[in-house]
């Protein structure tokens, strides 16, 4: 009878989480590379190139693919014949592995987990606890699947209780456009069908642990209704023209995953959860022989590509920028930013608005500045800052008008689209919103040559920093006239696809 030791569980979980922080699954890289080669939209092709280059840089440098190193989800299948040599519970062993992984001195991972979610929302400091699903099965091993899921994609999860006669495909096609680009396409959609509401959600999440194999399925042909749905949904979602980062293009999803379960005769629960361009998951098996450690993939699995901005990209000095210069930018134009920018995301914006409401002075003068929506990873070794990609901009929409109105802020930098309320405010104040590519955090960090905390240091990664950047690549996503490329791009590419 196999004996699973406490140390083996902890070491294996910690190793897996470090591994997936900087190694994409190679099936994902192959699928992304194929999509990049076929892409015809210049903006989408540029975004995918940044993602591919970022991925190789992370594999070589062993630093996080994305600054959002995720909430940990673990699926465990525990054999009935297994015995344990442990003073800790299974949950505590897993969480100790998470703690060690996220505090590894050579590759510090960002702690994003907040306790008391409806109250104080205080950071636990070590990214624990994980979300753990355990089942007991026949056998004498422990099979473990580990994933780290970023908030931007997790926030776009959708769930519905359809009528049994309703079309799942119609619901998906109606719902995907409402998700915007905050989930950082191209990625995967995991769909859980059946069971109960909570079972459908677990099925959807579990399906995302599977490798990308839609091309093999297409070649051999579907063998059941779930496989037919995978192909139909894949083609019809890509026909929407949403494209990489929501900029418009041929590829929105790289694969569709579906798991189903018997359900009540009156019910059709469906849950859809996207996986972003920072897809991170792996698995291992414990059999009592020691820890199960990951094997590094061969770097030849990554295409040998370099990222060089288009020659037409406009260089912008952020230290001397004027409102007239901001008004001259065109939607979809690529800019290379140099000089000083500020950072700030949810917690900082909330604090800023509270101070404005009280008529109190802000700790940082925002007049004439740009603010970057980011929560960076702590630096290691000689880094100025750790991976520092953008966070989802729509979460700041409710603060935008007041901040622009009362501070003299010139503009913002973030990920994905802005909502109607923010676009209207940008137009009113003749401001601008610039988009950095989600899934290129390490690449972006190399453009940051200086960093210091200016305000709210107690907030950790949510503090206000001042970054000095050199040739940081961004795209004009909303110009001073309120024209959004996230509206115009997908509409244009949907028409192009329909004409093919």
Automatic annotation (TrEMBL):
A Pfam match: Fumerase_C
Residues that span the membrane, as ranges: none
GO molecular function terms noted in the UniProt entry: 4 iron, 4 sulfur cluster binding; fumarate hydratase activity; metal ion binding
Swiss-Prot/TrEMBL cofactor(s): [4Fe-4S] cluster
Residue ranges annotated for the Fe-S hydro-lyase tartrate dehydratase alpha-type catalytic domain, each copy included: 11-284
Recorded catalytic activity of this chain's protein: (S)-malate = fumarate + H2O
Keyword terms, alphabetized: 4Fe-4S, Iron, Iron-sulfur, Lyase, Metal-binding
Entry keyword Lyase: yes
GO biological process: generation of precursor metabolites and energy
Ranges for domain Fe-S hydro-lyase tartrate dehydratase beta-type catalytic: 288-488
SUPFAM superfamilies: FumA C-terminal domain-like
EC numbers, comma separated: 4.2.1.2
Gene3D superfamilies per UniProt: Fe-S hydro-lyase, tartrate dehydratase beta-type, catalytic domain (3.20.130.10)
NCBIfam families cross-referenced by the UniProt entry: ttdA_fumA_fumB, ttdB_fumA_fumB
Job description of the protein: Catalyzes the reversible hydration of fumarate to (S)-malate.
Subunit structure: Homodimer.
Family stated for the protein in its record: Belongs to the class-I fumarase family.
PANTHER family, per the entry: L(+)-TARTRATE DEHYDRATASE SUBUNIT BETA, L(+)-TARTRATE DEHYDRATASE SUBUNIT BETA-RELATED
Protein name: Fumarate hydratase class I
Species this chain originates from: uncultured Thiotrichaceae bacterium
């Amino acid at each position: 009878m196999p004996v699973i030791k406490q140390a083996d569980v902890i070491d294996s979980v910690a190793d897996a989480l470090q591994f997936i922080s900087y190694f994409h699954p190679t099936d994902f890289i192959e699928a992304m590379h194929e999509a990049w080669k076929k892409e015809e939209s210049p903006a989408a092709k540029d975004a995918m190139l940044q993602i591919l280059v970022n991925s190789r840089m992370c594999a070589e440098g062993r630093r996080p693919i994305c600054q959002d190193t995720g909430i940990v989800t673990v699926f465990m299948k525990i054999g009935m014949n297994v015995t344990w040599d442990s003073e800790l519970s299974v949950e505590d062993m897993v969480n100790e592995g998470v703690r060690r992984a996220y505090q590894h001195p050579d590759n510090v991972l960002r702690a994003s987990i907040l306790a008391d979610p409806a109250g104080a929302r205080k950071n636990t400091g070590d990214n624990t606890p994980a979300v753990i699903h355990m089942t007991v099965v026949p056998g004498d091993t422990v099979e473990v699947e580990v994933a780290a899921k970023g908030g931007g994609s997790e926030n776009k999860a959708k769930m519905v209780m359809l009528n049994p006669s309703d079309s799942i495909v119609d619901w998906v096609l109606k719902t995907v456009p409402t998700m915007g680009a905050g989930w950082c396409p191209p990625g995967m959609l995991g769909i859980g069908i059946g069971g109960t509401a909570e079972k459908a959600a677990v099925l959807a999440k579990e399906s995302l642990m599977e490798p990308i194999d839609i091309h093999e399925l297409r070649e051999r042909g579907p063998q059941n209704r779930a496989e037919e749905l995978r192909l139909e949904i894949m083609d019809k979602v890509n026909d929407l023209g949403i494209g990489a980062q929501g900029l418009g293009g041929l590829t929105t999803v790289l694969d569709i995953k579906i798991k189903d379960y018997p359900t009540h005769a009156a019910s059709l629960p469906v849950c859809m959860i996207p996986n972003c361009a920072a897809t991170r998951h792996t698995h291992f098996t414990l059999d009592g022989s020691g820890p199960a450690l990951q094997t590094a993939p061969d770097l030849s699995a990554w295409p040998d590509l370099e990222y060089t901005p288009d020659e037409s990209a406009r260089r912008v000095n952020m230290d001397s920028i004027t409102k007239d210069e901001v008004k001259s930018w065109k939607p979809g134009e690529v800019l290379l930013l140099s000089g000083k920018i500020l950072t700030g995301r949810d917690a900082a914006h909330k604090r800023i608005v509270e101070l404005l409401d009280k008529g109190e002075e802000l700790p940082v003068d925002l007049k004439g500045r740009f603010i970057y929506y980011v929560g960076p990873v702590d630096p290691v070794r000689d880094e100025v800052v750790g991976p520092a990609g953008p966070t989802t901009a729509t979460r700041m929409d409710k603060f935008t008008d007041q901040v622009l109105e009362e501070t003299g802020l010139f503009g913002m930098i973030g990920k994905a689209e802005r909502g109607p309320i923010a676009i209207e405010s940008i137009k009113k104040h003749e401001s601008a919103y610039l988009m950095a590519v989600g899934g290129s955090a390490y690449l972006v960090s190399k453009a940051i040559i200086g960093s210091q905390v200016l305000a709210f240091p107690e907030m950790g990664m949510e503090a206000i920093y001042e970054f000095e950047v050199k040739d940081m690549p961004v795209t004009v996503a909303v110009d001073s006239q309120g024209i959004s490329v996230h509206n115009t791009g997908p509409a244009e590419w949907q028409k192009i696809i329909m004409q093919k």
